[in-house]
Amino acid sequence: HAYSLQQDIVQTEEHRVLCFREDVLGGLQSYPKHLSSKYFYDTKGDALFQQIMNCPEYYLTRCELEIFRDQTSSLIAAITNARAQSFDLIELGVGDGIKSKYLIRELLDRKIEFRYLPVDISGNILSQLETSLSDLQGLNLVSLEGEYFDMLREATKISDNRKVILFLGANIGNMSAKEAQFFCKDLRSMLQPGDIVLMGFDLKKNPHTILDAYNDKGGITRDFNLNLLERINTELEGNFDLHRFTHYQTYDPETGACKSYLVSNIKQTVIVSGTSISFSEGEWIYMEVSQKYSLKEIEKLASHSGFSMITNFTDPKRWFIDSVWIA
Ligand code: AVJ
C-alpha cells in the first residue's frame, strides 16, 4: 500500500474532492474553458491509458520501451556513479512502470544498492505496480501517492541519499514549454549537486505521425478525454451528456504543441456541483497539451534550469529521447 504521509499533506478523500471541485469549476468558468489532464487518471482513465499505450498509432511507449530493453546497461552506467554509494531512485508519474522494470531488475541482478520510490497521482495504478513488482526479490520499495512536488518533498525528507529522478513517458509534455521551464528549475532546487535526472521527451517529427498518435482510429483517445467528463459526473454531481461533445485534436509543428479539446456540439447548459455552466454551439474545453521537443530545445531546458546534459538515449527511429542530466 501507498506510503502514508505526514499529517500536513495527507490528501484525505474529502480534501481531494474539494480540490478537484475547485479546479474543475474554476476551469469551466474561465474563458477559454479548460480542465487539467492530471485528473484523467481515475480507475477507468488508468485502463483507457493502458489501451492508448497499446494503440498502433501511439508509438511513444513502444519507442521508450525499446530504449529501456535494449540499452539497459548504458542507462545504468549513466545513472550510477563511481563511488557506488546507495541511492534513491524516484520515479515521477510511474504508471505501470513496465519500462523501469528493465532497469530495476538489472540493478538488483548487479547487487547495486538502491531504493525505489515510485510516485503517482493514481493509487489504483500504484497498487497494480506493486503487484507487478512483487516478483523482484529484495527490492526496497516505497510508493508515494500524490502530486510530483509534494511527493518529491516527502522523498527528500525520508533520506538524504543521492537521488536519481526518473520522469519518463514524455510526462513533461503535459506542461507547456514555459511550465516545463519552471518545473525543471523547481526540480533542480530540490536536488543536490551530483543528483541525476533521466527525462523522456517525445521528439518533433512528421506532423502526421504525431497527430495520428492522439487521433487513433479506435477512438480510445476520444474516450480517454470524455472519461474526465464522466468522472466529473460521478464525483462532482455533474450532468454532462458525453454524446454532446466531440474530441478535437490539433498539432502545430512550429511550436510542437499537440493539444486536445472537447467541443460542445450544441448550445447547452451543464450542472456541476449545483453550478450552471453554459456552452455555446462549438465552444471548446481545452483538455491537454502533449508538448514535442527538438534536441536543441531539450538542451536549452536543461541548461536554463541549472542542469548539465550528460548523455542521451534514442530508439532506432529517433522518435523518442531519454535525456540524462546532472545537477
Ligand atoms: C502520459 C502525458 C505522456 O501526452 O502522450 C496519451 C497522455 N494523452 N494520449 C501523452 C496521453 C493522450 C500522455 N502522457
Protein described:
The chain has a 7-stranded mixed sheet, with helices on both faces. It has a 4-stranded mixed sheet with strand order 1-11-8-7. Strands 9-10 form a two-stranded antiparallel ribbon. 37% of the residues are buried. The two termini are 31 Å apart. The protein has 11 helices and 13 strands. The chain has helices at 13-28, 43-53, 60-70, 72-79, 98-109, 123-133, 148-158, 177-189, 207-213, 220-235, 295-304, and strands at residues 33-34, 87-92, 114-120, 144-145, 162-167, 196-202, 245-252, 257-264, 268-272, 275-279, 284-291, 308-314, 320-326. The protein is globular and about 65 Å long. It has 327 residues and is of the alpha/beta class. The chain binds N,N,N-trimethyl-histidine. N,N,N-trimethyl-histidine is lined by residues 52, 60, 169-171, 173-174, 214, 221, 224, 288, 290.
Summarize the structure.
The protein is of the alpha/beta class. The protein is built from 11 helices and 13 strands. Helix 2 (43-53) runs antiparallel to helix 10 (220-235) and helix 4 packs across helix 5.
